[in-house]
Task: structure prediction
Amino acid sequence: MPYLKSKSNNEEIKIFYEDLGKGEPIVFISGWPVTHAMWEYQITPLREAGYRCIAYDRRGFGQSEQSLDNYSYDALAGDLKNLLEELNLQNVTLVGFSMGGGEVVRYCSKYGCERISKIVLVSSIIPYMLKTGDNPDGTPLEVFQDFDNKIRDDRTAFLQTFGKQFYGANLLSHPVSQGIMDWTFSLAATASQKATLECMKAFAQTDFRNELSSIKIPTLIIHGDADKTVPIKAAGEQAAALITNAVYTVYEGAPHGLFITEKNRLTNDINSFVSTGSVEDYDKDDKYYATDSVILSSNDDALVTR
Result:
């Protein structure tokens, strides 16, 4: 099994990764609280389409080693940097889901984008999740404090409940099978309690707003307008307004875990954006949504599709 020895702050962490396929490289960064395996429904068809797909487990999750206490975005972006250098990757597309969007932005703001050709942010926490006086649409601190308490008390029970919100499941809606729910739980359960807590603190409290001006390369932002985990108004909409020339695609009715509920559309949007720099329109009869384009008033360069 391939491991990267990632050094930061006098600490060496073994990071597990998979390097699959040949061709133009796409690096996938997973969300909290799951592992790189979340991307299987994207990686398989993209490999078959001729891409080299690399995905890794965040420190403290899956098969990667855990740190004693270093889960800041500087440390996490350092792991991404070390992976790109270890594999000597160039002309890379970075795809970050949820928390993984933070690694993407911190990497670019701290190390530059010389190795990176494009960015895809999926259901991302960018630019700032916490509700504050100048971020009124963010999530109140009390929500994260409640998560912290529940993870410390019974992490597995928390993960089972969180999974339902993750996919938008309730008494009347069952967008994914019980098998997918169980699989997602199994991925999240592999993380250490410490990593789960510290990474939540990192994505909840890190403000990336001043870093987005560093992104000068083509960027695709994808967000579901029914996302209850990372609400679109505070995340996708704001990111699209702050990243110049971003292509902003809204998946109507999609929850946070759209990498499963909208897996075919997401895979095709990634493929289209990597190959052409744009996103195609899809027909609902082909299991995709047709798109309409509008322009955000706060950023005249941001193209929005629905």
User: Anything to note?
Assistant: Residues 225 and 231 are 8 Å apart (CA to CA).
